Amino acid sequence: MSVEAAPIKTNLQVPKKQPDSPWRMAIRRFARNRLALIGLIILIFMFLLCFIGPLFSPYSLYEYSVKDKNLAPSAEHWLGTDKLGRDVMLRMMLAGRISLTVGLVATGISVIIGSTLGALAGFYRKGVDTLIMRIADIFLAMPSLPILIIMGAVLSDLKVEPENRIYFLMLLIGVLGWSSLSRLVRGQILTLREQEFMQATEALGLRDRRKIFRHLLPNTVPIIIVSATLGVAGAILYESALSFLGIGVVPPTPSWGNMISAANNMIDFNKRPWLWIPPGMCILITVVAINLIGDGLRDALDPKMKK
Question: Over the stretch 64-87, which tens digit does the pLDDT of each residue have?
Answer without folding.
Answer: 777 888 888 888 888 888 888 888
